[in-house]
Amino acid sequence: MPVRPRLTPAIAQTRRAVRQVLAELAPKKVLLAVSGGADSLALSAAVVFEAKKLKIEIAAAVIDHALQPNSKAIANQAAERLRAIGVQEVVVERVVVRQTGEGLEAAARTARYKALEKIRLKQKAEWIVLGHNLDDQAETVLLGLARGSGLRSIAGMSAIDAERRLLRPLLDLPRQTLRQACADAGISFWDDPHNEDSKFARVRVRKLAGELEKNLGPGLAEALSRTAASAAEADEVITDLATKCVKKALVKTGARQVSYQVATLSKAKAAVRRKALHIICQSAGAKNISRTQILALDELLTNWHGQKKSSLSGITVERVANQLVVKSTKPLTPGAC
């Protein structure tokens, strides 16, 4: 690989996207999350180039999910390519993927992010930098639409996720641009065969997106990305209003029980009220909360006629006189979101 590849449009676009995010945040050190694929290696090359000018330290992590027979060799090859690009501090870590009811994809993602966060803390890096691109964002929106789980699910991925310390500077660049950036720089990359395996939901969505683009014309990924941005903005406003509503409605908190004023919650607009209920349940420890469950809880506020308490994954919610009472088997964090 040339030490200084010629500046092609693909390389320039990738560097510019990285520069905008890193210059805004000015971190002292970042951790690159690298699979060995084109996206993460194009990202790595751009970060190496921009970090020198911005005086940012770099480390990289390659997570071996041990889901393919040659996964160890693939991970080590990715580490070698990172060192050739100019990343000297590279950690290769194998994780155990424990399947849950959410499937192999979700289990692998959970194991990966847990390992990345552990490495980030050990490396004293401020952010984990990921190579998600425009096409990934479009696929995420389509998956969210299919699940029908609200604004948050179609808001896609955030370029800057402060809560989880994640950066995704390439969300506006298509996958092909990143592959071209690697080709232009002489960087070899690995094509994961799982990306063609239709047993995975994301792969099926990827193929569907390709068919939709053929039938509807070019620009589908960009349109879905704009939809995600609009949904994220709306969700931010609703979440802010709902959080304030929850705090205002809070009556009493205990180790395993929290009470909220029905009158305060019921006065809120439907979108804010239901988001407030989601926040209340989530802070009590409930997971995978469905819209059907939220609508049933909403009935306790707006159509009360003596309903029985509702149970949601480890918590119960019931109306007692003029209060909404949330109980959990674990200590609660009232109003957290």
Can you tell me about this structure?
This protein is α/β, with parallel strands linked by helices. It has two domains: about 210 residues, Rossmann fold; about 90 residues, Up-down Bundle (Chorismate Mutase Domain, subunit A), CATH 1.20.59. The chain has twelve helices and eleven strands. It has a six-stranded mixed beta sheet, sandwiched between helices. The chain has a five-stranded antiparallel beta sheet with strand order 7-8-11-10-9. The model has no long low-confidence stretch (mean pLDDT about 90). This is tRNA(Ile)-lysidine synthetase.
| CATH level 1 class label of the largest domain | Alpha Beta
Helix proportion of residues, in percent? 40-55%
The CATH architecture of the largest domain can be given as 3-Layer(aba) Sandwich
- Major pleated sheet: 6 strands, mixed
What is the N-to-C succession of helices and strands? HEHEHEHEHHEEHHHEEHHHEEE
The CATH H-level superfamily of the largest domain is HUPs
What strand line-up does the widest sheet have? 3-2-1-4-6-5
Q: Return the domain count.
A: 2
Shape: elongated
Radius of gyration: 23 Å
Round the mean pLDDT to the nearest integer and report it. 91
CATH domain fold name of the largest domain: Rossmann fold
Secondary-structure-derived class: alpha/beta
